[in-house]
Design brief:
8 strands; Umud Fragment, subunit A; 8-stranded antiparallel sheet; alpha+beta; 149 residues; single chain
Length: 149
């Protein structure tokens, strides 16, 4: 994952590997919302900082939640890329960045190309926040309302 910025707490990340394909493909942008670790469930796609590479970001699906590890009480998550053979080492709740709330196909590649122009990136992120996210939320609400009828 490569961070393209943060607006109002939401992080916009460029997908760099195929470990989560087909959920997220190389060149997609994902939007990550901070959340309390207690709200994470098995099956959620989360972004975290691995302890052995604190400058890196990994986005994988939670496959297990541990409240005890090696006799120590706490909260750990086990995550795995959809295309990976093995799960990642457990990570602590303090390493959690947040949950993925949206995928924007191909936009990460575009933003990565534009990324050298910081002003354009900021304007694009603001446009995304103030226009595309509310429109997507409205469409999702309308779809849900249509299913209830």
């Amino acid at each position: 994952m490569f961070g393209l910025g943060s607006v109002f707490g939401y992080s916009f990340l460029n997908v760099l590997t195929g470990s989560m394909s087909p959920a997220f493909n190389v060149g997609d942008m994902i939007v990550v919302k901070p959340c309390k670790p207690e709200r994470v469930r098995v099956g959620d796609d989360v972004t975290y900082r691995p302890s052995d590479h604190p400058d890196a970001l990994i986005t994988h699906r939670v496959v297990d939640i541990l409240t005890e590890r090696g006799g120590e009480q706490g909260l750990w998550f086990v995550a795995k890329g959809l295309n990976n053979n093995y799960a990642d080492p457990p990570f602590q709740a303090s390493q959690l960045m947040g949950k993925v709330i949206m995928r924007l196909p191909g936009l990460g590649a575009v933003m990565g190309w534009v990324g050298g122009h910081r002003a354009i990136s900021i304007v694009a992120a603001l446009l995304l926040c103030f226009f595309l996210l509310p429109v997507a939320a409205l469409l999702m609400l309308l779809a849900l309302r249509g299913r209830r009828r």
